Amino acid sequence: MTQYQCTVSMRTLSEEHAAILARALSVEPDINPERSSRIIVAEGSLLKATFIAQDAKSLRTIVSNNMDLFSLALQAIALGIETTS
């Protein structure tokens, strides 16, 4: 069976931010664990997410959903930076 895969890398402001994002996003359950999975890791200040799905539609869905989550998490970190400055 063919598997579809996509890896997304995002540079954050620090290793700490990447680690926070990886931990926070890893606890979110997969939308459809029977058809897709993801691996989220922090490598220095880089956040890397690899998505694997059984079909293109499932891959698109999991990537899109996680990009929304990444965006919200980055906004939350940015708010925390602003309030401590």
Automatic annotation (TrEMBL):
It holds the Pfam family Pcc1. InterPro entries: CTAG/Pcc1 (IPR015419). Belongs to the CTAG/PCC1 family. This is Transcription factor Pcc1. It comes from Blattamonas nauphoetae.
